Amino acid sequence: MINLIFEIACICAGILLAITALDRLDGKSNFFNNIAAKLKPFNAVIGFATLIIGIIYILKIECIIFGVVGIACGLLLLPQQLTKIPGIGNSLLKASNWLMPFKVIVGDAALILGVLGLFNMNPFC
After folding, report:
1. Are 46 and 13 in contact (CB under 8 A)?
2. Predicted pLDDT of residue 79
3. Burial of 118 from C-beta contacts in 10 A (0-12 / 13-18 / 19+)
4. What kind and span of H or E run contains 116?
5. How many other CB atoms are there within 10 angstroms of residue 45's CB atom?
6. What is the secondary structure of 93-114 as a DSSP string?
7. Full-model pTM
8. Which of 50, 64, 104, 117 could form a disulfide with 73 if both were Cys (CB 3.0 to 4.6 A apart)?
9. According to the 3-state scheme, what is the secondary structure of 9-53?
10. Cα separation of 114 and 101, whole Å?
């Protein structure tokens, strides 16, 4: 069950993070923009899901790449909420700012790994 939640969260995070690249694929239909607009209110929920479950996946040695992508998605989706965490909030914000140039790459990776995971074809977990 946690696998399915993580895969769906990664797909949603991938769409939110890689919307600039995905927008070029759909032409004038605005398919991905419509999906991203519907997902935007759930940005924090998706970010926390990918971050927390990504940390859990890091503990499984065969799922480490999937976990790292999930953590990166969580850091990129939650920059404002990360500062509220006492003790490590500023460090997490710095990590989020450092990852920002790679936002589309992380989003594409999350989208691909999430879709592959839904079809049980994920080579990294």
Report:
1. yes
2. 80
3. middle
4. helix 103-118
5. 13
6. HHHHHHHGGGHHHHHHHHHHHH
7. 0.87
8. 50
9. HHHHHHHHHCHHHHHHHCCCCCHHHHHHHHHHHHHHHHHHHHHHH
10. 21
Q: Two tokens at 77?
A: 């989706």
Q: Give me the half-sphere count of Cα atoms (radius 13 Å) on the Cβ side of residue 125.
A: 26
Taking CA atoms, 37 is separated from 9, 31, 56, 88, in Å, by: 16, 10, 29, 31
Beta carbons of 33 and 123 less than 8 angstroms apart: no
Q: Please report, as a single letter, which amino acid is at residue 65.
A: I
Would you put residue 60 in left (φ > 0), alpha (ψ -120 to 50) or beta?
beta
Spell out the per-residue pLDDT of the chain, length 125, in tens. Answer: 888 999 999 999 999 999 888 878 777 788 888 888 899 999 889 999 999 999 999 988 888 998 999 999 998 988 877 777 777 777 878 888 888 889 999 999 999 999 999 998 887 77
Separation CA 88–CA 37 (nearest Å): 31
